[in-house]
Amino acid sequence: MITLFKARDENKQEYFLSLQAEEQDNEVAIQLLEEEAQSIFDKVRNSGKAERFFEKNCTMIVCHESLKIKKETIFSLEEDPYNFKKNVLTYSTGELLALQTYLSSNGIEKIDNAIINNILNANGGKSFLEFKESSTRGLYSIVLKTILKLPFLIYTPQEQKLSNLALDIENNLSFGLNAIYKEIISLETEWNDENILDEVKKIWSLEL
């Protein structure tokens, strides 16, 4: 299946062409590299439906089952300098099922930046961090690969609320130390090598 997309933003002169072969096989992927890619490129270019910048700025997204394509073939496709820029998005059956389950259970029909960020930032980002520490391949792994291969999808980390450092310090000090802490931060004196001892004496009310 082949689908051609054009950027909505008129200032971005770029196309994306997604391709998923009906037969998922390494030999088919090699044939795409050696023959089919150029044929597809010529058909789109000569169709009269694509603007001139198509020739210089179109990325082919090749969707392929991870177990049915060799790493060498992926490398050859992505390093091939002719016709399209090529990105290979691989997936496992488990990853695809996890993504489909998430989308259907949440009533989502398409993936965009908001959906990507909702997935990765869910549960305060804890679920994503747990995934990073494990070898599990599922929803998070396919989402990350999708971000890497589709340049128009951007992950924005969730902003963490900064704690009030002064309040945290006060809450964790004993009554006596809290009084000393407040005395220190209320001082307007600039401490230096000459007066530091005198200032410490004042705070602690000690004769050293």
Write the layout of secondary structure elements.
Layout: E1 2-6, E2 15-19, H1 26-45, E3 58-65, H2 71-79, E4 85-91, H3 93-105, H4 113-121, H5 126-132, H6 139-149, H7 165-172, H8 175-186, H9 196-204
Parallel strand pairs: 2-3, 3-4
Antiparallel strand pairs: 1-2
Helix pairs in contact: 1-2, 3-6
| Residues in helices, as a percent range | 40-55%
* Series of secondary-structure elements, N-terminal to C-terminal: EEHEHEHHHHHHH
The description of the largest β-sheet is:
4 strands, mixed
How much is the radius of gyration in Å? 29 Å
The averaged pLDDT comes out at 81
Q: What's the number of helices?
A: 9
In whole angstroms, how far apart are the ends?
A: 84 Å
β-strand percent reads 5-15%
**How many domains make up the coordinates?**
2
| Strand neighbour order, sheet with most strands | 1-2-3-4
Structural class from helices and strands? alpha/beta
Shape, principal axes of CA atoms: elongated
Number of strands: 4
Low-confidence spans: pLDDT under 50, at least 5 residues?
none
Explain what you see:
- The protein is α/β, with parallel strands linked by helices.
- It has two domains: 2-149, no CATH class; 165-204, no CATH class.
- The protein has nine helices and four strands, in the order ββαβαβααααααα.
- It has helices spanning 26-45, 71-79, 93-105, 113-121, 126-132, 139-149, 165-172, 175-186, 196-204; strands spanning 2-6, 15-19, 58-65, 85-91.
- It has a four-stranded mixed beta sheet.
- A hairpin with an 8-residue loop joins strand 1 and strand 2.
- The protein is elongated.
